[in-house]
């Protein structure tokens, strides 16, 4: 691995970004078509504070890894070293990730193939030049949702397909399809597509949770509640809170949702302002209690 240098106006290193780069390169390898690491030489580093980078284990008891690393810098004052030094204006997070991968024996770093030395325009500061190179907007969840990339998890892929097919908000679908499970956000799908698994270890998605989500969606779709009303992340989260507390079976869920009128709110439950998830939870709770009382009366009469 080449000696790594940063200059004073380099961006802060974000460990999360290093981890994403690590996962992508580990899974797909370094692809120069996606962009070599761009370096500037001594001419463009003139007048800049130059820092020599050392990457080492955070805990000496464990080997260097993506979960056990730290970065130290030391200012370079030797003129001869400054003359040969090169520093990244683009790709500093990838450079750290590749250093770790090479230390683990998962990558052979080739400076000629993986980096290119460029020069900034004479009338532009190095900081502005760096900013102009790094002005691309990172892909977010919505960008990835437009692609045909699969996550590799068939249950998450099914949920993602439901979002596209039903044209409902992602947080609504995720709440309905993870009833009884830890809360997860749609961004986990984006990360999975990038090779990063952030799913909670306690998450247990299976055919049962999938079928339950299907039935809940059907129940809302055939209810008196309009789509514009139930396509609400807070309502869906409130419903999940209610489900996690009471664990109603599918028949009870179907009966409950069919009972709720167009206004949604049980008597005395409608808030003055915008409703929060806990208020929706209490509202579903009131309807559920009302339903159970009516069911008990019906049984008594019979």
Structure description:
- The protein has 302 residues and is mostly helical.
- It has two domains: 5-133, no CATH class; 141-301, no CATH class.
- It is built from 14 helices and six strands.
- The strands form two sheets. The chain has a three-stranded antiparallel sheet with strand order 1-3-4.
- Helix 1 (15-28) crosses helix 3, helix 8 runs parallel beside helix 12 (233-246) and helix 12 (233-246) crosses helix 14 (277-301).
Integer count of domains: 2
Report the β-strand fraction as a percent range.
5-15%
Annotation field: number of helices: 14
Strand order of the largest sheet: 1-3-4
Q: How is the biggest beta sheet arranged?
A: 3 strands, antiparallel
* Average predicted local confidence, pLDDT: 90
Protein name: DGQHR domain-containing protein
What's the SSE blueprint?
Elements: E1 5-7, H1 15-28, E2 37-40, E3 50-56, E4 70-75, H2 79-84, E5 87-90, H3 92-103, H4 111-114, E6 115-117, H5 126-133, H6 141-145, H7 154-166, H8 170-176, H9 187-193, H10 207-221, H11 227-230, H12 233-246, H13 250-259, H14 277-301
Parallel strand pairs: 2-6
Antiparallel strand pairs: 1-3, 2-5, 3-4
Protein name: DGQHR domain-containing protein
Organism: Phocaeicola plebeius
């Amino acid at each position: 691995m080449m000696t790594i240098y940063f200059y004073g106006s380099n961006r802060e290193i974000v460990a999360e970004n290093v981890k994403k780069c690590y996962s992508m390169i580990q899974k797909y390898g370094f692809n120069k078509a996606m962009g070599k690491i761009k370096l500037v030489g001594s001419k463009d580093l003139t007048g800049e504070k130059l820092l020599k980078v050392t990457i080492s284990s955070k805990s000496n008891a464990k080997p260097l890894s993506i979960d056990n690393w730290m970065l130290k810098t030391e200012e370079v004052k030797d003129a001869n070293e400054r003359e040969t030094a090169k520093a990244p204006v683009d790709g500093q997070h990838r450079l750290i990730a590749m250093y770790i991968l090479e230390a683990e024996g998962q990558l052979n770093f080739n400076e000629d193939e993986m980096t290119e030395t460029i020069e900034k325009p004479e009338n532009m500061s190095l900081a502005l030049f760096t900013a102009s190179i790094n002005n691309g907007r990172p892909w977010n969840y919505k960008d990835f949702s437009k692609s045909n990339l699969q996550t590799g998890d068939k249950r998450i892929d099914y949920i993602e397909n439901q979002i596209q097919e039903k044209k409902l908000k992602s947080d609504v679908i995720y709440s309905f399809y993870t009833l009884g499970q830890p809360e997860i956000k749609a961004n986990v799908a984006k990360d999975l597509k990038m090779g990063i698994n952030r799913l909670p270890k306690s998450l247990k998605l299976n055919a049962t949770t999938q079928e339950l989500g299907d039935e809940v969606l059907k129940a809302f779709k055939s209810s008196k509640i309009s789509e514009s009303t139930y396509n609400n992340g807070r309502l869906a989260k409130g419903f999940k809170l209610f489900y996690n507390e009471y664990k109603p079976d599918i028949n009870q869920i179907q009966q409950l949702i069919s009972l709720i009128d167009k206004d949604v709110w049980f008597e005395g439950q409608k808030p003055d302002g915008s409703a929060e998830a806990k208020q929706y939870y209490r509202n579903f709770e009131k309807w559920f209690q009302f339903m159970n009382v009516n069911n008990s009366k019906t049984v008594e009469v019979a």
